[in-house]
Specification:
The protein has about 425 residues and is of the alpha+beta class. The protein contains 18 helices and twelve strands. A five-stranded mixed β-sheet has the order 1-2-10-7-3. Strands 4-12-11 form a three-stranded antiparallel β-sheet. It has a two-stranded antiparallel ribbon with strand order 5-6. Helix 11 crosses helix 14 and helix 14 packs across helix 16.
Amino acid sequence: MSELALFSPETLINPYPAYKQLRDENPICFIKEMNVHVVTRYDLLRDAIRRTEDFSSKFDAFLGGAQQMMFSVLDDEQKQRAQQIVSKMIVTPPTMLTLDEPEHTKYRSLVSRLFTVSQINLSASDVRRVIDKSIETMRGRSEIDFMEAFAFPVPLVIISDRLGIPEQDKAFFYEAAAAAAAGLKMSPVSGEVLLKRMQLAVDLQQLLIRLMKARRVEPREDMITILATSRLEEEDRLLTDGEILSILNQFLVAGHETTTSTFGWGMLNLIQQPELIERLRGNEKLIRTFVEETLRLEAPVQGLPRLVTRDTDLGGYALKQGDMLMLRFGAANRDERQFPNPDSLDIDREKPGLQMAFSSGVHHCIGAPLARQELNLGFQALLASFTNFRLDQTKPAPGADPSIILRGMPHLHICYDSI
């Protein structure tokens, strides 16, 4: 399987036939053009994730290389503008996503205070309030772009509220957060689009720093306050601005982009399998399984790298120190060796939580409980309020963004009936 076949835009739109071929014929495949060893089988991913001493999460070099490839589209004048923008940007050190133990733990243990069971339970009423507001905007209509009307705004409003973004700054925050997530797609864009994203990133840093300073003087009940006022116990110090910005940037992507895409794919599942609707409506247990199955079938993060720290092997496949793995969660989640009838959504599936959309081990997504809360409450409300979901045949058919990392759906034009 060549790099062109696996990571071409055409294949990324529907990678699952390629994933199956790789799982069956070459479950660890070296892609020369990307300089990565792609891992597609469930058992091999679990093994790689577990072996943190052999396979490191310090993959900053991979991300840096991808960024440099994107900068190659800039002409000389644009490169000068880019340098001016970068000069104003605060450097963000690795914190959670791209660190190993024990450095990873010192940040994760601090951030975990935001995601206790009590904190999640307390947030349920706020989540319902945001969801209900979007439901009400849908009631007066029968045709919408579901991504624009519900899937995008609901998680974004929720994360902005949790962070403590002031009302007057929310419009800018939404634009900047969307740009940050778009950058992770690693999809080719024009030089002007890239420059705009960079400027938004700088402006977002300035907003967040202003809020951090304000919260240290006047604390509130929000994430920015907790991060701005908490201390790293091992070093007996406050987090630096760069460390806080690094953590918040991860929240931005994990806190809305992944949930947005799962809302979209879940709605498409309801449209493609309308017989599920009556079974799901009012049944919280089955809705939970439906959410897990949607996450499994369309993993919002399709893959992430790992750096090989020493000569070793994975499932008998030889690897050398310095090699880069690409763990494909989207492929592992459809591995028939782990999931019977892997391409089918089964709301009666046993142990649906074994899917790896949120990874596993020490790097299991810390915000997964909040994402599940939003998705479960969101689909409960949608199914209680509407029925007869169907595609709007007068609009373009839905499809995935061709992205190496994320599995997003830009538009989903639907029709529906109110109950």
